[in-house]
Amino acid sequence: MFGDNVMPPRKIFLTATKMEKSITSAENLSKHAANRLLEELCSMGPIKSHNSLEKLKSYISEYIKFLPGPLTPQKYCNLDFNPEIDSILYGKILEEIIEKFDHNWPVQENTLDPILKQLLIVDGATLLILTESLNALILALKETKNERKIFVISIILEQLLKSDSLFSAIVNTCKYQVQNVIQQEEFDETWRKLVQILVSLPNRVANKLKNKIFDSFLPEKYFKIICFHIAHAISFINIGLHYDIKAELKLLSFLISKLVIITNSENLLSFTNILTEWCFENKNNERDIIQNILKALDTSSIEPIAVLFLKYCDINLGIYQIFGDILLNSNWKYILTTKIPLMCYYKDDNLIINLISYLAQFLNNNRILIELLMKLLDIWGNKSALNHTSVEQHKYITKLIIMCVRKCKHHLNRNEKDNIQRLLFSGISVHLESTHIILRAMGMSVGEIFTNELSESDDAPKLSFEYNNMPDEITDLVQSLKNLAIEIKVSKEKEQIKRNDLITENIEFNTLGDKKLYELGIECNLLSKKNIEEKYNKNNQISINNSKESIILSKQNLTDNIINKSNIESDSELDSDDDLIPYDMSHDTKVSKKLRPAYLRDLRDNLVNDKNSNNPDIFSESLQVCEELILSQLPNDDVSFAIELLELFITLKESCYVENFEILTFKACVAIVTIYPKDCAEFLCRQFYLEVDKYSVSQRLFFLDILSYSARKLSTIPLHENKKDIINEAKMKQKTKEISNKVSLFINTEKSQQYKILYSDDFDEFEKSFEKDVKENWREIVDKRIESNTKRYAHSIKISKTFENKFGNIASSFFYPLLYGFGKENTCLNSGLQIFTDQENILLIRFLETLSTIMIAAQNCLLASKMGKELLELSWILRYHEQAKVRLAVIENVAAVIIAIPKNTIVNELFEICMEIRLWLLDLSQNVISGDHDKDCRDLGAKVLFLIDSIIGTIGLPSVTNLLTPTSTNSKNQISNNTSTQIGSTWAGSGLNIDLDNIMGSKAKQTGPAPTMNQLASNSPQHQIKLMTSSTIGYTSPMIQSQQQKQQHINPAFFPAFQ
């Protein structure tokens, strides 16, 4: 890995001088590129077109040329240099770029843009670069609420975690550098921040992704990835130590300490296994660097990692080769001699054997193990301690005592033996007095073992107890204590198996630790097995010799091979006769989809540009994606651009065939109107009333459809919002298996007693199922008991769910611009030319239907009463239109008003006009002579009349039905001639006789014709303003002027109070 060639001093000096000059110029160029990129980012705003994105990418490409490349031995040995990057400027660039993330960039189909990847994920990152990158991503992750952006940032963090950035940052951080005090403090603070980010990153991502978190951020896998980078860095730094490149191992120890504290120690098992193998083999002197790292660990992290080593190291090899003289460290000494043996207890015998075996290594130098034995015996024989400790902990202390006496029996002097025997016999008597059979058995077995181990000759008297009357589990326990720590020597056959284990899949490793490091990289998807095998077969350079350069796989073999996530069929699945391997095209993107625009301005250009619009693929794909782009991007754009797009779509022609062209354009227009409803609705209304030659009838109908559907969509209320939750809860409820009742040994002979058959299959799982059922249902049982014994004097009020009508605030923008254009001259509804009558009727019908839809959408809005009043006046004018479908639409308008306006508002504000319309509907639907000739109009009129009667009934007025009787034509004409001078023109020729002076409240004789009902309504105070506006509105259409004279007379029987 590191070369042995040494250059002459003069040549080195000249080379270094030239290199320094080139680095200085490169740094100036990098700052210039960074400033240009930052200026472009601050001035461009959101990405709105493909051209602006490509321009941004070009600036990024210029800047990433100066970022550090992958870490190499030459750079670590200072034979190669990277230009220094301004980390603060780099962080600002990342913050600005992250703000530019949108639905299309930088991730498409879960693939990160390669140019941005080189900017955010720097393989040769330094501490400052990696810290700035993580800070920018985490800050954006914390502040954003956009699910798409959260997903993109999580993908970037995952790829950054799996890259060489962390490995490179660790190596560069641990490399010794000459710094002053201030620089050193800043450097250490930056490292602490980076470590804090690393240990908290899974929680940060999980808080945002919730149940959609990636596997890489689950604790088990996440900490394995971190451990891979740490182990890789330790191996790399160890090689540098051979070339006198100093390292600050305290920083690495600080990172390991944080990992041990923050996570379950079992997640670091793979890391400790790698260190264990390196220490046992020690082919490249890894033992020294590992022991120095362990010595510098924080006090709080020593116990978990020590327990890992003690549990999982081979008892035949021990842990002395891993720990060395670490016992001389005060923190480690306290953990190994006090906390683990005296303050904790473990069930693993390996831990006990490894711990005592390690302490026994120091018997020649100090008496630590003997002192520990004395303390353990004192606790073991203490009656109070025996009564206040658990059986498991006492068993743990007993095993420690047995191991201690077996390891130190040859190092005890006479005085120490006497003290041990004194403590032993007092402890045995305490155990024999205990009522617990296990404690008695442990006391007897310890007494036997001690007398055997401490006896000076075979003829010395020995202690012996009888265990015949004790249960089998007691005898097994006694036997296990006697057989504890029987030494087994390593056989040569086992060593041969280990050598064979170094070869796997045509790759030969130098040590078993290297192999485990490789397997960990494969497990975490950091290395590609296929790529490594190909490199081996091609170059035949993977085989690792015993030289110092081959501690680990070369960097190209270990870390440049990011896992290829696509599934590739194995050779075994292919025909043996096939010469060519079929290419996997399952994940390929269709050519047509590549033509889809990613931004709204690109969509506009594709539809406007003649070259693109005449291309069937571009035109079709642009229309397919237009609604999605509008809904995702237009809310962040300008209103003027929305109007521009709307004008484009309402006039768009089908230059090439597109399936469902009308539906796609309609959906696009509705999406635009729902995003900016006020301005777009007013624009459509203006376009609807433009000159006749401006738009065709179909286009104007298209405008009305957009308005009506948009109003309906804006006012939609989600009726089944929690339907999915209800379904999920129902699925989660699992049926519990009914188990048989407990078997009773007493037989109840009463006839009323019911018995259940206990089948043979119930016996197998009887106890298990019963215990499981009790554990699962105890809470349900308690809740039922509480519920049955609880008296309730009041019940909580169920609050009904309410929803905001988004159409309420912009209803006037839909209704009034459309309504006030009616009746104006030279419009589509009043052209003044006879040839356009049919077109005007078609438009009028759709116009009235659109007003009805808007009125229904405005239900419960503040302007609903005013809008209803206007719509009823329009309906009164058009009630005698010559076209039956127009009259049907008029009746629908009346029904829409009655439905949309509350009853109290109708009674208080619209009562007079509703009474007039009611009488008209009564005549229309029930008078067979003067009623409407169209059956649909009569049927709908009767239904609306019933609706009005239901409202009149709520205020205490009797509903009037079946009052008009058929009369002959002669009598009708006679009544009409006799009363023509007394009633108004409104009721002339109706066959009804009423003196309208009573309604006006005047008893004096009046000359001339009586005023009509419309005139009476207009003279009321609430209609004074309407007289001024009605002339400008222009409701009197030429189509209905002939119908306004067809008024009806009212029978006096209708108003008995005025007779």
UniProtKB/TrEMBL annotation:
Signal peptide: none annotated. Keywords: Cytoplasm. Residues 364-452 form the TELO2 ARM repeat domain. GO terms for molecular function: Hsp90 protein binding; telomeric DNA binding. One of its GO terms (cellular component) is cytosol. One of its GO terms (biological process) is 'de novo' cotranslational protein folding. It is found in: Cytoplasm. Pfam families: TELO2_ARM, Telomere_reg-2. It comes from the Eukaryota. Residues 597-711 form the Telomere length regulation protein conserved domain. Coiled coil: none annotated. The keyword Nucleotide-binding does not apply. Gene3D superfamilies: Telomere length regulation protein 2, C-terminal domain (1.25.40.720). Belongs to the TEL2 family. This is Telomere length regulation protein TEL2.
